Amino acid sequence: MELEGRSVALQGLGVVGSKALGMLVEAGAEVIVADIDEEKVGKAVEEFRVEEVDTEGVFGQEVYIFASCALGAIISDDTIPFNH
What we know:
Layout: E1 7-11, H1 15-26, E2 30-34, H2 38-48, E3 51-52, E4 65-68
Parallel strand pairs: 1-2, 1-4, 2-3
């Protein structure tokens, strides 16, 4: 899949999320990041020039891909409602 110009909400900037961030930006994706660690978010914004949102706001983003790289069981009907 071509990611150039696609929007991605990336939740979590730990080992997996940080690696994914670099790959997404390199592929030309427009990335929005969120993490409970404000230092990691600040570093991502500075280094990759991505947009940041708070940890609750990440769920409401209208994006092509939602990438949860944080705690498990985070995606549910409460966090991201499925619209038919």
